[in-house]
Structure formats: C-alpha cells, structure tokens
C-alpha cells in the first residue's frame, strides 16, 4: 500500500493536514523539549504522526533556532566508574530536555582539557558541562570571559554555575559513622590534592573527629589518585606505618584497593578493620564484604547541571545535593 512514508519524508504540514490542526500546533506538540501535553488534540497529533511515520529532524530544527541540540560534556576519563556514571546521568538529563549529550575526555592535563573543549565548541554544542576537578583549573574563567554557556558538575569554583554533592557533609557522615561505632584510630585515604572533592571530604572527616574531641594528624591522611591501584598502594602505606581500626576511603575504587591491601596485611574488613567508601557505585553492595559507603545522587547532580545551563540570570548558581550514608557489612562496632 502506498503511504506518505513511501513517497518521501513526512513533514509537519503533512501531519497538520491529516490531524486537522495548524502546523504551529503540531510543532508545539511534537517538541520534545516542552512538557508532554495529554490534551485530546495533543494525543491525536501524536497518534497521526506515528501513523504517518513522522520523525522530527532535531538537527534541522536546531539550525533554524541557531542551535544544534547537543551538549558537550568533558570528563577526565570514562574508565573511571564515577565519571561513566556521571556522564550517563548527564545524558539522561539532557535527553529529558530534548538535547543529545556528547562526551570528550581530557585526563588530568589542563592543556588536553582546553584542546578537548575547543573540539566540542567547534562542533557547535549549545553548552558545556565540565566534570573535571582541578582546583587550579583556569578553563571556567576563560569560558566566562568568552560568554560561553557552561556549568560545572561534581565541583565548583565558586563563580561558574555548579551542581555537586556536598563533599564536606559526605566526609562528615562517613567518619561520624565510624566514631559512633567506637573507632578512635581512623586513617583517611583520599584523592589527589588538586581535586576539590578530595579536599572537601577530608574537611568533613576532620569536622566529625573534632566533634568527638579527636584531632586529625597529617600522617593519618594519605593523598592518592582515585583508582583501585592507588588504593592498594595507599592501603599498604597505612598498614605498614600503623594499625588503625578503621579507614575512610574517599571513593569506592580507593576502598576496594584498601580492601586488597588489608588482606595482604592480614586484616579482615568487617571484623578487625572497618572501612567506608564514597559514591556507592553498583559494585559496592555486591562485594564479598558489602561496602559501607556514602551514596551520591548522580541523577540529581546531573539534572542540576543541565538546568543551570539554561537558567535565567539571577537564579542561584551553585546547587549542592546532600549525600546519604549506606551502612553495610564492612563497618562494625569496636569491641572493648
């Protein structure tokens, strides 16, 4: 049977004529960026569009508005579980607004970060979300100076629009949990010094210890990368120099590495050693000893980062999402 789809591309005008409404009505109903109407007319328009095989050309539509319908996302690497989860959450949030997210990686190198940013801009993205984390990063200031629409995810420089978890509160919750279980000899393994998340979580831990009348000595904090291998090496350093009853690792990969180091040192996580991680990656609850960790709501952070790209001037530009503690078998009460 001969159909419009057989004869060529179905247009908005074809749908409008078949549905008995105006072209502007069809355009409004089928605009994925707008709230989905359930009116009789909207339902009829969508039904007709499906029957005719209409497919919205987002690229052409965007060009007419001077946009491409894409958002660029910059992350250090996608081999990092947290960065992969963050990008997936940003992609979902962008899609909910009718945009498509594309990703570029830059490692931890500022020059690579600038180069990757220019590549995304050359491809005409409508905005940028930076999920990089260097405290000495000059890129946000450069983007502000150029008037380029952008937001930061998982960190803030205090000026550019930012959506992040409350790292100070997360570190506080982790160590407060250990203190409440009776631990007093607590070591901390955190990320690199250039990462705002690493420093924020240490400050939260320091606050929890101070409330209990305990000081956080410098030798009890080990700065590392955010990978499993870095966690193993940091754990070895901790267990070689001391015998803490508990360790707070500032991300779950580090915690997994510390688990390995603890095994090599003859320590038993969940028995004579308590361990808390951070982020609550999917693997955390599925380990042989399920990991107590701080849950970070990536979808909320991503939605905030995308919203901030399009927020009108004058709205709050820094949004912090509260994390929550997820107690599991890797932490236990100190036996007196």
From TrEMBL:
Any GO molecular function: DNA-binding transcription factor activity
PANTHER family from the UniProt entry: HTH-TYPE TRANSCRIPTIONAL REGULATOR GALS, LACI-RELATED TRANSCRIPTIONAL REPRESSOR
Q: Which InterPro entries did the record assign? A: HTH_LacI (IPR000843), LacI/GalR-like_sensor (IPR046335), Lambda_DNA-bd_dom_sf (IPR010982), Peripla_BP_I (IPR028082)
| UniProt keyword DNA-binding present | yes
Q: Does the keyword Transcription regulation apply?
A: yes
Residue span(s) of domain HTH lacI-type? 10-65
Q: Under what name is this protein listed?
A: LacI family transcriptional regulator
Q: Could you list this entry's UniProt keywords, alphabetically sorted.
A: DNA-binding, Transcription, Transcription regulation
């Amino acid at each position: 049977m001969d159909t419009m789809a057989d004869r060529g591309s179905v247009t908005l005008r074809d749908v409008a004529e078949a549905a008995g409404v105006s072209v502007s009505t069809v355009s409004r109903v089928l605009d994925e960026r707008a709230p989905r109407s359930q009116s009789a007319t909207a339902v009829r328009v969508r039904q007709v569009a499906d029957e005719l095989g209409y497919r919205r050309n987002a690229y052409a539509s965007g060009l007419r508005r001077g946009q491409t319908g894409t958002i660029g996302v910059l992350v250090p690497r996608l081999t990092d579980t947290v960065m992969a989860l963050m990008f997936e959450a940003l992609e979902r949030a962008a899609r909910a607004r009718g945009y498509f997210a594309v990703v570029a990686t830059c490692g931890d190198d500022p020059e690579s970060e600038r180069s990757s940013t220019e590549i995304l801009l050359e491809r005409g993205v409508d905005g940028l979300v930076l999920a990089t984390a260097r405290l000495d990063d000059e890129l946000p200031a450069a983007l502000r100076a150029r008037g380029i629409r952008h937001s930061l995810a998982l960190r803030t420089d205090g000026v550019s629009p930012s959506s992040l978890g409350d790292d100070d509160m997360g570190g506080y919750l982790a160590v407060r949990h250990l203190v409440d279980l009776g631990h007093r000899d607590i070591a901390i393994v955190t990320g690199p010094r250039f990462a705002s998340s690493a420093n924020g979580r240490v400050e939260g831990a320091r606050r929890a210890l101070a409330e209990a009348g305990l000081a956080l000595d410098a030798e009890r904090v080990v700065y590392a990368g955010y990978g499993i291998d870095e966690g193993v090496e940091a754990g070895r350093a901790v267990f070689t120099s001391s015998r803490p009853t508990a360790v707070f690792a500032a991300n779950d990969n580090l915690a997994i590495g510390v688990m390995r180091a603890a095994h090599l040192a003859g320590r038993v996580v969940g028995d004579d050693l308590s361990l808390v991680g951070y982020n609550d990656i999917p693997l955390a609850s599925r380990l042989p000893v399920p990991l107590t960790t701080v849950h970070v709501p990536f979808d909320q952070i991503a939605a905030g980062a995308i919203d901030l790209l399009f927020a009108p001037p004058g709205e709050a530009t820094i949004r912090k999402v509260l994390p929550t503690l997820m107690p599991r078998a890797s932490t236990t009460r100190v036996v007196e």
